[in-house]
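dude i think i finally got it to work??
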Amino acid sequence: MSVQVRTLDDLLHAPLDADSELTTQEYLVNMGPQHPIAHGSLRVVLRLDGETVKHVIPVPGYVHRGVEKMCEHLTYRQIIPYTDRLDYLSAIMNNWAVAKTVEKAANIPTNERIDTIRTIMSELQRLQSHALWWGVTGMDLGAYTAFLYGFREREIIGEIFEETIGARLTMNYIQPGGLMYDIKPDFAQKVKNLLPYLKGCIEQYETLLSGNVIFQERLRNIGILDGKHAIALGCTGPVLRASGVPYDLRAVEPYGVYDKVNFNVVVGEVGDCWDRYYVRLEEMRESVRIVEQLIDNIPEGPHATIRYNEEIILPEGLHYGQVETARGVFGVFIASDGKNKCPIRLHFRSPNFNNLWIVTAIASGWRIADFISIQSSLDLVIPDIDR
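look at this
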């Protein structure tokens, strides 16, 4: 088996060919890192023939900060604030991935109160993240009003987070052995009041965008990714499930209290942009359903099982843990020498990095406008790619 290695320079200066008898010339266009559709500091080089995309070359790395290397000089508690700077729209779930890995390796116990609150908070953030994605997707395709609606729900959920955690975006809340803060006495009631409102908002989303003929034309049968290729490319989360693969860690490897609630794993049929849209919208309904089952039954008990200043040293060896974030599987790989309170090696398996590269497989042959739809349907958060 031979492997061909091509540099960015090779791709950018490849021979330009015309596909028809008409005299055409291929050319290169940079989409990002400043382009409004770039979703942060992502550069994508499009090789075009007219408006037809011939080749897509992602160029990540513009916000690379060496997070994994920095974490090798931090204690396991100090690592937590760095995880919410990756996929900042799944901050709480990223916290959980590190805490879960450390707890399993060091045999640190939790209790039902901790697990229940972690699950509720994660599902509220999944709702918050999907609502923002819905609004941004509408704005990307020309429906600016959707962006205002999506941000409205995001801020309402953010108020509940702020009361409990003290932050609305980069939240380091879940710690090894528990939670940074316990919930407020009125937390459950405020969440219960919020749930019917969110149900109504989802119906509004359907009315505003889902039923719009132009919006459907921009998404249906565009950027089709079948399940086989999605698995081969390492896709996870809604991107994978939209391709018909019912893989959700909350169901196949339950953690927290996901094994105590009923919910459906939503899958698509075609694997196009519309299915990626539909899966996230239905996941919002399932998140509301999960929170409804838990909010009246939060057990009593302490919100932490170890002291905040307790030294944590993992046993010698390799340790891995993972959770299902709003964008897919976020994994934490830790190598410990069994002596130091810092890992000797650490690696994050981020869902956005793998999901990004499907554009190289499915975008060729579509128009520039279709590429906008494809990229929006992936729900990329760039710092999670670059790290």
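The chain has one domain: 67-386.
im so relieved honestly
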